[in-house]
Design brief:
Elements lengths: L2 H6 L1 H18 L9 H11 L5 E3 L2 H13 L7 H26 L6 H17 L3 H5 L11 H20 L4 H19 L9 H15 L4 H23 L10 H16 L4 H4 L6 H4 L6 H7 L10 H30 L4 H17 L8 H16 L3 E3 L10 H15 L6 H11 L5 H15 L5 H11 L3 H14 L4 H12 L5 H20 L7 H12 L8
Antiparallel strand pairs: 1-2
Length: 550
Amino acid sequence: MNRRSVLACLPLLLLPGCWLYWWAGGLNPGVQPGRSAALLLVVGCFLAVRLTAVPRAALPLLLALAWQAASLAWTPVPELGLLWLVERCAAFTAALGCAWWLARDDGPHEAALAIAGLGILALTAATQTGLGVSLALGQEAPFGNVNFAVGAALPLVAIGLTRFLHGGGARWWVFALAAGGVGGLLAGGHLGGDPNRAIWLGGGVALATALVLRLPSRWQLPLIVGGAALLLAAWLAAIAGVGDPGRLGAGSAFRVHIWNAALEALAGPAAAIGHGTASAIAVLPEQPSFAAAWLSVPSYAEHAHSEPLQILLDGGLVLAGLLAWALWATIAPLWRRRGEAQAAALLAAWAAWAALALVESHLATPGGLLGTALLAAVSWRSGDTRILPSPRLSWLAVLPALMLAALIGRELAGDGGNATSIETRAAHRLENATGETRLAEFTRLRERLGPLDQVDLQRARALGMSGQRQEAAACLAGHLDRLPVDAEALRLAARMRLAGAGSPDLAAAEARARQRATALLAAIPENPVNRAARGALTAALAADDPAPAP
């Protein structure tokens, strides 16, 4: 089997890892399905031990990784920051290893990459049906939920769509029809789950880029720059509040509010250096716009749901500049050869990647990192390279592989993992915990992940049950200032006030929260996701004499 065949079979290669995660999830609650792509990142790292040359994009990427490593010193969530850093180091090394591995085969690899992307989307669509259960995959394979699968695979599919538009023959007609069918099913939510409208965005941008690259060269750059400017303007207009994102669904409204929260967080020194790797989960709840996001979709935000904003939160303008340099070093050689079908296809893929990056943080997941690493590897394979001072340096590739393998082992054994895994395990441990144990668990969870959405509310309850009333009032006051639309917190504050267990600060925080909650309730429309939260908030605001605490 040649390298192109192996690449095309990538979806099948992911299945053993998916089964491993589901098996481990049955033993240890909290193991999150859809993270098995991390195993292939480990394999890709070992491919890099034979390197003798690296692409020009490696230098800015190495500097970017070094900056993210330095930011662990000031991130509020160092445990998550370390996981993200190791995963990104592994993805960078895997991209180098795959570029070397693919260079050993003379044939073009773009077709195999497109087939792999289509296979991942097809497998994702299949898991929305009974086939997911029969394959022991459930609904989150191979890259997690549909959003992350689309972000990882659609840029690869864009390669095949571009070859179709460039007259690739009958096989590309078949590919285009299959991609349209699978994409339509996922975009419409016809197999279950929420519709993924990002497919229209990424696919449309890819097709538009492919068509522009068939025009005379004098038109290409102005049209691409103009199209990118229009897309960016539309994104900024949504952030500025033009139009009603709620018409596209609760998820779209949630994203717009989260983007505003991210911009609010980028004030002062944070604009230059960021808040540290993986900091969004702890920083976003502290921003005024987070309450509006929570009332749209009652949930915490593990990331910024936008790659540019996530980059700025992680490392500020320093990190953004380094990554922009790396992206240019990757794309510039392709642009110079854009008259070739392969180069045009890869440019369309990167255009789709950039469009999807506006609406999701795909590099926060192993699947998104793997898809980007493969796209970079194929782009680098025929690009300019610089010789390493010594081939022995390539053995450093083993380090991220070993570190990621250790973190994967810890995750599968029932500890560590991403934020969702940590929070789920904490909730499992709290099911039958005593009062003292509950307080210790909530305090530890707060230290590991930040306030999330309701951790401080639970801590306030635990503090009150342990007799620490002043600490409970202070904790609840801070929670109401962060999340004034939390009906449970408003009811608890009212009960503490009536029982004489409150404080002047808590009374002031309750008054501010009621005022803000009333305004947000009027501004944010009801949807199927937030109906229960809105109903509870309406009742809490209307209650003049809350019932006594049980």
